[in-house]
Amino acid sequence: MKPHTRFLIVACLAVLTALLAAPAARAQTLIRVDGSSTLFPVTEAIAREFQLRTRGAARVTVGISGTRGGFRKFCRGETDLQDASRPILEPEMRSCRDHGVQYYELPVAFDAITIVVHPRNTWMGSITLAALKRLWEPAAQGRVLRWSDLDPRWPRKRIHLFGPGEDSGTFEHFTEAVIGEPRAIRSDYVGSEDDNVLVRGIEADRYALGSVPFAYFAAHAATLKSIPVDAGAGPAAPAPENVANRTYSPLSRPLFLYVNAKSALRPEVKALVELYLTKGPVAVREARYVPLSARAYEMARTNFRNGKLGTVFGGKPDIGLDFEIEDVLARAPQL
Question: N or C, where is the chain less crowded by C-beta within 10 Å?
């Protein structure tokens, strides 16, 4: 065989080997995130910074299938990280065990579920928690239909309701906090796991009312009006300071990042989580959520570095922020 022929064969084999290996290499540097649209603005910002820092060596995809929908994928091992607007629940814990998925539970921010209406709604200045229940409970369907059904001084116009879809963590927190029974709600409303859909619907309808995470209201404050909620101690606005001092309760809540323990062994996933827990407070503030304390972020980093797996919430929703997050982070977890 002539030398130049041998060279061409070797070169072709090298190119073919590189082409065959390239998809595998790309798959190793893909980090898959899914879950809550509430946490999406924060995670998307962190993902962008991470990809800039790695100069494209790692690609991060961030989905918004809702907390419940995201956990279905996460517990099957289909995603590396899970955005969640409430703690993992018992059925999801069982699913993770059944699929051999272990995980880290990392609180990263606080949110205020915000009641919003169209800016031309001039009749509503606040609403009580009891009135919200009367509006949203299953018994309201077919009975509480007009604004005047809530208050006779208000317009005799049909209320058009917008709220979280059933795969959303916001749906589960809202139903338990407002109605007192998880997943119990009237069905005649526009629901979506994508909060942008809800925002667009309310912006276009003077007689609409809905609930969205605070970041989605803050980004559209010129075209939406937020409504203070009176849970018994007077109306409280969904402002960050009222989340921090716990006067906006029970519609305040922690937000979480869950990390597949096997995925966390990959250097790029570990680096992304470390960046999240270090630079996260900046992204949280920019999204208009409330950051944790510096000590809480440090405790979360320590738990992650020390391999503290499982959940400290025991598979139960925690409504009302009647706890210190630092105390929660110090609890013994369970899988």
Answer: N
